[in-house]
Amino acid sequence: MSAPGPDLSTRDIEGVDDLSARCFRAFHRALRLHGRVLMRALAAHGFHHGQAMCLRMLAHADDVTQRDLARALHVSSPTVTKMVGSMERAGLVRRRPDADDARLVRVELTEAGRVQEHEMHTAAGEYAELTFGALPERERRELARLLEKLGDRIELVMDELEQPR
Fold first, then answer.
1. Are 109 and 93 in contact, with CB atoms under 8 Å apart?
2. Which of 30, 72, 100, 164 would you label with 41, given CA atoms 20 to 30 Å apart?
3. For the segment 87-105, what is each residue's pLDDT rounded down to a tens digit?
């Protein structure tokens, strides 16, 4: 397990009202724990989290370039090249040159990759049922509503931060 990062959940956040700080700390803690437990749940089924994310992405947008995979996964091109190479050796993906631009390499799932992605998706569903499914339906509906609203707000902030100044 990697060394934990700074624990933002226990420190005061300067310039933020107490309730907003409490929400931030609770969200940060839940997000951190969610990531750790989900990775463990996937690992228990033999999946590496980076490859799991790559399989998931290819299942939804098959036949993409390695460059696009790197962007979507927020990792460097050499990292994707190494990951895809490992997945190719395991028979999960197939690489081929782009028909229009020989500089680009396209990646697609093999049948074995589709089977593994389905198994990984099932493992993630089991985890979701153990965590979110344990909450009463009314609370899940409210949590979903609030997280969707928060996601919309975060997306607006992200768009604003990406605007040239």
1. yes
2. 72
3. 999 999 999 998 898 888 8
